[in-house]
Design goal:
Elements lengths: L5 E7 L3 H9 L5 E8 L6 H7 L3 E4 L6 H14 L4 E4 L11 H9 L4 E5 L7 E3 L3 H18 L11 E4 L19 H12 L4 E5 L1 E3 L18 H15 L4
Parallel strand pairs: 1-2, 1-4, 2-3, 5-8, 6-9
Antiparallel strand pairs: 4-7, 5-7
Helix pairs in contact: 1-2, 6-7
Length: 241
């Protein structure tokens, strides 16, 4: 297998508190880090650039899917072989990226990080309600794809860019601009027969201390839940390609 360099993609929206540290902790296997700013107004992009990342800015907020797509385009233009996608909010540990990269180098096409796998998977401060929703959605995903997934919603992923040359995978569709793209691509990788696997990773949520609750996600109830679910429905019923 022709293997080349690997880039990291971090979609960014107002994560000033975490982005600089993440970039500085990128492992040696990451040749280039693309931070795609999706309309931040907190100075995070400037910190990312100073830390050594290549920052690409959307003038207006378009959504995490659009940001990942922009990062993919940049990685492909840069001649990279594969990408690792991770959160820009500090929940993912860049030091664990080699776990996903190792699987790619062993012949996998798409690798999903899982907080629920033994021998390295962990989840710190995960709210109980969130945990139940993740497990429920993952169960639906398993039933529809036949793949024994354990953590479908984890945004820590890696894949070979050449799978996007498959005409049956169309990430350019505008309906994938928000949370849809990640689940669309995972579903496609599984159902089109690409070699897909999971590796254990950790996920750290902010600790809830005192009376004031710390916001742990930007996902809006119902509105964004639908955006996460509809790729499964649309693709299974043949409504979208």
């Amino acid at each position: 297998m022709d293997q080349g360099t690997i880039a990291a993609i971090l979609p960014l929206f107002n994560e000033r508190h975490a982005i600089e540290g993440l970039i500085r902790r990128m492992p040696a296997q990451i040749a280039e880090t693309f931070v795609v700013d999706d309309g931040s107004d907190d100075g995070g992009p400037e910190l990312a650039r100073a830390a050594g990342a290549k920052v690409i800015c959307h003038p207006l907020r378009r959504g995490v899917g659009a940001a990942i797509r922009t990062g993919i385009d940049a990685a492909r233009a840069g001649g990279h072989w594969a990408v690792v996608v991770m959160a820009a909010n500090g929940k993912d540990d860049p030091a664990e990226a080699p776990r996903l990269i190792d699987h790619l180098q062993r012949g996998y096409d798409y690798v999903q990080g899982s907080r629920y796998l033994e021998a390295g998977g962990a989840s710190l401060n995960l709210p109980r309600g969130r945990d139940l929703m993740i497990r429920g959605y993952t169960l639906i995903f398993r039933l529809l794809t036949g793949f024994p997934a354990s953590d479908v919603t984890n945004g820590f992923r890696a894949y070979r860019l050449s799978i996007l040359d498959d005409p049956r995978i169309r990430i350019d569709q505008s309906w994938l601009d928000r949370y849809e793209l990640e689940y669309y691509l995972y579903y496609k990788a599984l159902t089109l027969g690409y070699r897909t696997g999971e590796v254990p990773v950790s996920k750290t949520y902010p600790a809830q201390t005192g009376r004031k609750k710390v916001r742990y996600t930007k996902i809006r109830p119902f509105i964004d839940w639908w955006k996460m679910v509809r790729p499964l429905i649309y693709l299974k019923l043949g409504i979208k390609k």
